[in-house]
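ok so i was messing around last nite and threw this chain in just to see what happens. nothing serious, just curious
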Amino acid sequence: MKHFVTTCGVRAAAENDYPAIVEIWELSVRATHDFLPEDYLREIKLLLPSILPRVPLYLFCDEGGTIKGFAGVAEQKIEMLFLHPASRGQGIGRKLTEYCLQELGANKVDVNEQNQQAVGFYQKMGFRVFNRQELDSLGRPFPVLEMQL
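result:
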């Protein structure tokens, strides 16, 4: 595993990566956001084609070019970070987060309060809750924790 970092890396996403990004988003959300109802997942998925071009996206790929996860950063905030479920626990989330912090200047993130794995992950990365919103960005009753370094 020592060579993992040298053979894999982060690159900017291109429009032709969007189908793989949407697939990873859906697989990741289904594995980690069991509190979201099916109709809401479908609604968000339909919005993704209009959201993705508005956020600079970065991919973590293996040596063969397979996308293992992605992150999006805008205005110093990690807007999204999703991993293929089979890639969890391999340090990819940490690598993507470190890239967002060190290369893109991110220092904030919003996390669904009910996604305790993500809350714990960001806390381990040094983020702390500074605010709580009762509603998510689409006005639904899924509380969001605003976190910053």
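not much to say yet. The two ends are 29 Å apart (CA to CA).
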